[in-house]
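note to self: dont lose this again. the chain is below, predicted strucutre after it. 174 aa total, dont forget to put it in the shared folder this time
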Amino acid sequence: WPIFYNQKKDFVYTHSKTRQPLHNDNAWFSDPAEMVFLIFEKQASQGGKTTIYKIDRILNDLEKYEKNLLADLQCYEVIIKKDDSGKFFNKTTILRNDCIYWNYYRIQKTNKDIKLMCDQFFKFLDAREKTKSVEKVKCKTNDIFCFNDTKMLHGRTSFIARNKNDRIVHQSMW
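---
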């Protein structure tokens, strides 16, 4: 399905030109598609780099800087769901078996401990994005970017766009 800039939907990450925080696309599925393909039909002329934070680096950085947060992310179960239909959800720890399941805006923050853990991890990820731990890749028009959605977090930097479809990316998950 297409992901495109649309100034009328600028309040939704998918269609905005703003920075998109690190996340998984399929965190709310209990048996998620692992492989994600991003096909860049049209890349923005400025910005729009894909940000990548691999699981091994996440684990190493947490071990080095936030041991208690690492333990919490491996211990506390959360419910991640996209909507209230109840059809798709994932009850899991955020870090499990060398995989990561993370989407700050989709996690049900059912108590103060879960909320605190999620807020701390969101801040941690934001701070790490400014370091070499998070790679930034500028995909060009006609590039294809493929990755395992459970083995890394991804996002994007903000980009310059004025008109609808100034950036078009097609996504497929397997």
